[in-house]
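Write out the 3D structure for:
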Amino acid sequence: MVKCYYKLVFRLVSPLALSSGMGKKTDADVLLNSFGRPFIPASAIAGALSENLSENLKKKLFGFVEGENLQASYIVTYDGNTQDDFHLSIRDGVALNEQKVAVKGAKYDFEIVEPGIKFVTYFEISDINNEVNEDAMQLIENIHSLKMGAKTTRGYGNLQLKEIYKKTFVFSTKCSAQELDEQCKAQKSSEQCKADEFTNLKNWLDFDLFASNAFHTADQLANPKEITGRDRNKLELKLKIIGSPVIRRYTANVSEDENYPEPDYESLTVIEGKDKKIPVIPGTSWAGAFRSHIEKMAKEMGIFPPNTAEKNRLGLAFGYVDKKTACAVKSKIIFSESKIKDSEAKLMTRTAIDRFSGGTVEGSLYTERIWYGGTTDLCIEFDGGIDEYVKQLLACAVLDLDAGILSVGGETSVGHGIFKIDKFVLNGQVITQFNPQSLTKNNDVGGGISEQ
């Protein structure tokens, strides 16, 4: 019999929105354990791990209940916990119409765990039979990353694997003395084999999975590479910021120094390290801007006429929720959260001017903190099976982003949210001449692709 244990260390590289179902502080508070620390339930980890498996393999490894037929999971999954210092923040969400005006009743807020901390989880496998054991080990040892919680298609909950350890115990507790003798004949004396068997069994009984030194003598495995290809494509854009994006977060802070006022609102940031603020563009903003722009292009070209089945092709790609029929479809296009590097924060006080009198409008004075300049990266992942027209429209939207026609965030009418693309990278290859056919199956990549 074989008992196999794995220790996996993940780093949270984007905000985690894993809700407890409670709404004391926000509409969706973060899930905390009895010590008041964020954690990832084992059920969520097992669900994320089995999400892309075939139905038969999922049943074989993780068990099933079908009427009177049932089978326990062969993979024992443990909660993911963190011992790092963590920060919780509150983010706002809202649905916007074509005029960028909030849809009535679509305002909400939710709590997140700021990125940068590490989560540790464990897996346990018992040797039921060679086939199950091999499939289970292959599944765990090929984990590159996991997406947990809500809004995973909009850049949230991205956990990257940093370390993986494996500890194995081999023993035959169900063998009789005669069977043990037969197993050991070709290798060593029966007495020595029995002694080794006893030692292995004792070591396993003394093994404490959660001890700090439990995996000091374990094998550290190489981290697997990310898999991209025909069914999953990854477009990476290296962006230079021309007009600083404004993703608002309203504040109610009061400054103690009247010479340095606190802004009425500031650009959205994440906390890195102890208290360093890094401006970000969330995946929800990217997705909203791209979807709105693609819908406008499709409408102008008559590709997806309104109120037809063809219009639903966009919904199948970007996802939708139909409250009337209680039907929901998950987005097949994933937009990352983008951290802005090498930017500078500046306070700006503005007011509205009465066009008739030339004076200021009462109550319109406000101060904002905006981050100017810098660079950022945007990663767009999409399912190879999405509509070919949608792929072409997505490529056109990328070209419009590069041309400054597609802008992101607020105050776009006064020059904010404009980008220039310095590099296009598709599935690890640099594209020197990006065009509307670059993301489609018919692209022969002859139009300028080089190795990165």
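Helices lie at 42-50, 55-62, 130-141, 177-184, 190-206, 283-301, 312-318, 388-403.
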